[in-house]
Amino acid sequence: MKKKFSLGLTIQYGFAIFFMLLFSLPLLFMISSSFKDPQAIFADVKSWRAFFPVGDVNFDQYLGVFDRLPLWQFLFNSIFISAVVVLLGLFVNSLAGYAIARLKFKGQNIILVGLIATLVIPFETIAMPLLVLVNSLPRVGFENGSFELTTGWLNTYLVQIAPFIAWGFSIFLFVQYFKTIPKELDEAALIDGASFFSIYWRIIVPLAGPAFATSAILSFLAIWNAYLWPVMVVQTEALRTVQVGLDYFWASTSEEGTQWGEIMAYSTLITVPIIIVFVIFQRSFVASVASSGVKG
Amino acid sequence: MVSLNNLNRKLLGQSLKSRSARAGFLFVFPAVSMMLLFLVTPVILAFSLGFTNAKFASPTEPSFIGIENFTEMLSLGQVSVEADPNDENVAYDNLRTYTKPSNASPYAGMQILSESYSADGTQANFTVAGDALFWKSLFNTLVFAAVIAPLQGGLALALALLINSKIRGKVFFRTVYFIPVVTSMVVVSILWIFFYQKDGLANVILDALIPGFEPVSFLTSPDLALPAIIFMSAWQAVGFHMIIWLAGLQTIPAELYEAARVDGANSWQQFRAVTWPGLRTTFVFVLIIISIQAMGVFTQINVMTQGGPLDSTTTFVFHIFREGFRKNDIGYSSALAIVFFVIVVTISAIQRRLTRDKD
């Protein structure tokens, strides 16, 4: 049997491919350019060569940017900060979610209502007062071989981590998910004499994989890509995240002629690993975003 | 025997109740205390600092100044002065006699928001404002939100319908469309700075499509910088909202489409009668989150244009940031943040109301 030619379907493929090019070509350009000298980047811009690593392909731009910047340090900072926020956040928020969804205690409803209310507060509103606040908080510093009590959290890891651990949206997500787990499981464990914490740890957590994945992915993306807050609270180069480091690098070279090759190498280095992780776990990513919509 | 059992149960239940109360309190304590410290306290701080003249890290104690920050922010005035068609400085010099900060005039310290001249050029009409950038940034932000909401929301819906259609390779296309979302805004901004240069990719493509096209430097043009940033922002985020539309599409039962087909509805009629009504809650949600995200636009501005050229891309959050962080004027910045909060809440309340089911 001959397949019928369908005009509608052809148009659909046409659009699908057009959008595929629209969304992928800029990133292909970035990746390809990271292997080229700046002169080659500009020479290639007028042809298809812009999007492919062709011509004199080398790693000079990568070597150059590592030479110029403490990029390993930036990478470590970003990974460390994201990992701590995600891991502590998962624990703190799921524990709170468990209490709200499964336990009975005073003020439970007020807390839930309060949590939902916090979701409407845009971070931009509180960024400046939060800066004033963290600047006046006490901190135990380690200087000259001894601990001392100082004031102000600016230029620390702490200031980039602590404000983002507890997250109303994540708690709400856990509450919703935990409510779908049958209550009989808890009750059976209670009769066996299990503590509430061991019920949370041994029964609830293992059954809530998707909620943990969603919360982890959304908070990781937010922290890894964060910009406004790190720009405000960190001036020390050694504590910069990859995003802020890139912005400073770009701003500092734009006067004396931008090092486009090195900028593309830096951008590729901090983008491609995330894209690879996304492609591997794309089902979970998509489910996370979708659930952020359904719950809203 | 039976009553003893009941008593036992009661006792057990009571101890369980108190254990549950204790555990519940203990388990929410870390999250709730952190949110009180890092979220609720700053909100209270914003609402109190907005009524003071606080400066960041300043040794002098802030003092309460009532609604002065707000009157300065919102004050507007009209000034007409004599002008000379042959010398544009005359009008400005005359205006300055009103707006000089040391003057006793009600317009002292105010800035030019807009200006117009009479037909013969002998009279100049100035609109002056206590904070001209407040109005400009508010306007730019509203334009940004008003353009990007239909653009990005509509494109996202088109992509979702495409993915949801009969084409093969759905997962592949969906993945590619989503990739810019996981790319950071700093990377995207710098990449597009390159594209928007005079010898960049955008000009190369436009040159190929439009005969006789003159290359332009998008980000240094007061007319093109904001549209260029809007387009780039939509490009970066559209995949996110595509996924939300897709989730909405998948909640529509297939039987409804079958019934429509049986009734002889074509694709467009099916969309009007089945798809669009079924996407109602998704529509409200997408509209509200795009608007709120758009109102908060900051990263692209700070990386790409710093609010320029000629303040044409200064957005509200960028203004808050510059007043508070660059000029250390925490009091005024907090007042701006309060206004921002009120605007965002109002916009989402209006959208919710306008899109509510009429029943």
From TrEMBL, chain A:
Spans through the membrane: 12-31, 74-98, 110-137, 157-178, 199-224, 263-281
Pfam families: BPD_transp_1
Keywords: Cell membrane, Membrane, Transmembrane, Transmembrane helix, Transport
Domain ABC transmembrane type-1: 75-281
GO terms (BP aspect): transmembrane transport
InterPro entries associated with the record: MetI-like, MetI-like_sf
Membrane topology note: Multi-pass membrane protein
Compartments reported by the entry: Cell membrane
GO cellular component terms, A-Z: plasma membrane
Protein name: Unannotated protein
TrEMBL record, chain B:
Alphabetical GO biological process terms: transmembrane transport
Localisation per UniProt entry: Cell membrane
Protein's organism: freshwater metagenome
Name of the protein: Unannotated protein
Pfam families registered for this protein in UniProt: BPD_transp_1
Membrane topology: Multi-pass membrane protein
Keyword Lyase carried by entry: no
TM ranges: 21-49, 142-163, 175-195, 224-247, 282-301, 330-350
Domain ABC transmembrane type-1: 138-351
Assigned GO CC terms: plasma membrane
Entry keyword set: Cell membrane, Membrane, Transmembrane, Transmembrane helix, Transport
